[in-house]
Amino acid sequence: LVPALPRLSHKAFRSTAQAAAIMLASCSSNSSSCAALRALPSVISTVAGVSSRGFSSSSSSSSAPAPSESATKTWKRYSELSRTDGATQFSGVNRRYIPPLGSTAIPQTPRIDNSAGKMSEKHMRDEWTPEELKEAVRDNVVMTWTNSAPRMSVPHIVRGEGVYLYDSEGKQYLDYTSQAVCTNTGYTLDPDVKNAIIKQMEEVFYTYPGMSMTTVRAKLCSLLGDITPGDINGFLFPLGGSEANEGAIRIARRYTGKFKILSSMRSYHGGSTGPLAATGDFRARFAGEMPGFVKIFNPHALCFSTGASDETAAQQALRMLEEQIICEGPESIAAILLETIVGANGVFLHPVGYLEGVRALCDKYKILLILDEVMCGFWRTGPLFAFQHFPGVVPDILTSAKGLSSSVLPLGMIGMRQKIKDFFETAPLGWGATYANHPVLLACAYEVVKKNLLLDTESKVLKIEKIMLREIDGLVQRHPCVMQGRAIGAFGCLDLVRKDGSSLNLLGQDLPKEALVVKQSLAKNGLIGLFRSPMLHICPPLVINEEELMDMFSRLESVLTDLDNALE
After folding, report:
1. Rg for the chain (alpha carbons), in Å?
2. Band of pLDDT at residue 13, cut at 50, 70 and 90
3. Distance CA 65, CA 71 (A)
4. I need a labelling partner for 6 at 20 to 30 A (CA). Which of 60, 221, 292, 346 fits?
5. Is the pLDDT of residue 46 over 80?
6. Please, how many CA atoms are within 13 Å of residue 343, restricted to the half-sphere of its CB?
7. If DSSP codes are grouped into helix, strand and coil, which group holds residue 525?
8. How far is CA 532 from the centre of its chain?
9. pLDDT at 355 exceeding the cut of 50
């Protein structure tokens, strides 16, 4: 081992030699440890390249002085106190330490049978009895987000057609929110979409995305490159909106080399850990504390006004944002992540000038802008993407999902501008997933997007918007329980209040009795959708016709009348 050790400097040699001499002076026995100490000076000399009597001829230093008699006595005393067999003459003291817990037994795993079970006979039948289905729901189903107890009382949906869903008892429900604002093309599956899915499944249903390329992946990326505004030219496809935002955050950090993500209060970005930490409502608490996520105010606050006019609100919110950027340190901020139109937290339309100002601040401080269009993208607000409403605004990274495949199959999207795409030509992206860019899902999305383009969905949504604005305005005027309403395209929301004008509840609190009245009335009037009290979203499928739209508002009128009566 000696030749492999580094050569000691003269100073290091003196320190080591002195230590050896000190230990040797305190060693009076013939034990093996003392023998090792006596050999130590020659070992040190070999390592240092000097003689055991002193340094080489190139050094003028002399050997270390002998320790004083006082020091020797102190060291000897200590060696008599600390011994394996106990202190000299007091063998019960300072013996080799015995662990007080002793040798603990390794716990034994209970012998639970972990062999696979047998498939029951009912799985060999196409049809199950109602009792068998209820038993399966009771024993094995776990609900998402909420507690699981309501699983026995929610409608058991067995089929869909157009904008309607039907339960196992034949009851019809009009879907007034496109479920989670995602079934944009309704429930009648387009034959071309169905055939594209089947064709891809028959040709090749899966390839690992980093191992090979598929035709449909090239086609969908090319189509999106054609139609997406600005120089957003690079695309990849995770399984949904949350995963898209997870990937966008990772990409922003990788591209900038910075860590912080600024996101808005009253926002939602997905259920996985990163996007949930970026979320600005009660659900963020489910993620626990996550470093690197910072909340900013947006122009719509719960407890105070940012201004009497939209212009004032936009300027005030932008001043607060710039103040926060400066205080956080722009050199530490990778990106600002915003919903282009706030979705699950109330369909808030940013005042004119706000998003334009955010884009300008990002440019000024070299921060990326990520726009989350998971809900509002793919014609929900009229144009292909909602950021087209704002002059000059193009995000650096764009995320979407829902309307991309109209939830026929699950799929999300991450789009990036050319500068970011170019960066990752040679730098590792640092994000991926087994089922990303899945060819069957891409085939579905490719056909859905083409179909919407050919049918001019943008024009259709603008017609829906006119009716949405008129009817929502009427609901606000006629019902004391409605404080205010918002709408753009087929994206709307009402704020529900008590008789005194206070909100029914805070989002995330247990539902008050008034909100339960709304839930019961929705079911009674054959409406199904995403009710997040105190907000009542109105976001029908984009294929809804005028007659169906008026039917929906008629049913909502009855629901609000029931709430008005309950508040009397």
Report:
1. 35
2. very low
3. 13
4. 60
5. no
6. 28
7. coil
8. 20
9. yes
